[in-house]
Amino acid sequence: MKETSTVSRNLFWKETVVPAADGLLKAYSEVFFSDNRVFAVVLLVVTFFDWPLGVSGLLSVMVAHGVAALMGFDKHQIKQGYYGFNALLTGLGLAMYYEFGWVLIVVVVVAALLSLFLSIALRGFLGNYGLPFLSLPFILALWIMLLAGRDF
């Protein structure tokens, strides 16, 4: 029984935790069109120099990747950070405009979802014409959230 538990725990780490961490790091490095994990860790640490920025960025990537995984999107693209880098930029941008608190957390979660869905929609639409979508979802999501939340 103990051996089965160890095997299932190792399988959980190998199939769930490691790809999730890898995707999270790739989202950070993808902002600079890099694939280097060390660079990604440096970026992650640097965002926490201003801890509300770091928390907002990390939360937004986790939300975007979590929802993408729950909705059954391509695991390889999640692991590559493609669904998270626009959410990361949106989370970092919002943290610069809002005071840290529950309002910011809710706004970041909503913005991460908006960024994810805009990424998917724009990738599908612009991909039909062979055009890249790059950071357009970040720009649109940030504008929408800032314009909608001027009173907060």
Question: Overview of this structure, please?
Answer:
The chain is mostly helical and about 150 residues long. It has a single domain (about 1-150), classed as Ammonium transporter AmtB like domains (Ammonium transporter fold), CATH 1.10.3430.10. Helix content is about 75%, strand content about 0%. It is built from seven helices and no strands. Helix 3 packs across helix 6 (about 100-125), helix 5 (about 85-95) packs antiparallel against helix 6 and helix 6 (about 100-125) packs across helix 7 (about 135-150). The longest helix is centred in the N-terminal third of the chain and has 29 residues, at about 1-30. The protein is globular and about 55 Å long. The model has no long low-confidence stretch (mean pLDDT about 90).
Average pLDDT: 89
Number of domains: 1
Shape: globular
CATH topology: Ammonium transporter fold
Uncertain segments: none
Distance between the termini: 54 Å
